[in-house]
Amino acid sequence: xxxxxxxxxxLIAEREALVIDVRETDEYEGEHIPGTLLLPLSFLDxxxxxxxxxxxxxxxxxxxxxxxxxxxxxxxxxxxxxVSVAGGIDSWIESGLELEGTxxx
Length: 105
Known about the structure:
By secondary structure, the protein is of the alpha/beta class. The protein contains four helices and five strands. The protein has a five-stranded parallel beta sheet with strand order 1-5-4-2-3. Strand 2, helix 2 and strand 3 (about 35-40) form a beta-alpha-beta unit. The chain is globular. The N and C termini lie far apart (about 35 Å).
C-alpha cells in the first residue's frame, strides 16, 4: 500500500507516523524529511523489526522503489499498518515540503 506526500505530511503533523528512511547513510545525510529515522534497506532485517502498535509505519526512499520493497518485507513478517511513500523524497521536494540535511544548511 502507498500513501502520497500530502498524507505523509498530515501523519507527521498529527504524530501518527513512525517514518523510516531506507536510503543509504550518505543520501540521508544530504537531505531527509525532518523526524525520520534512518534504516538503510541494506541493513533491514524484517524478522528483527520491532512491533509498533501506536503509530503507522511509513517507509520512504528517493523515488519509492526501495521503500515499496521494504514495506513488502515488513508486511510479509506481519508488521501491521505499514505503507510506502509514492514518489519518495523526490515527490516531497516537488511538493515544496521541508527537508533537513547538509544540502539544506
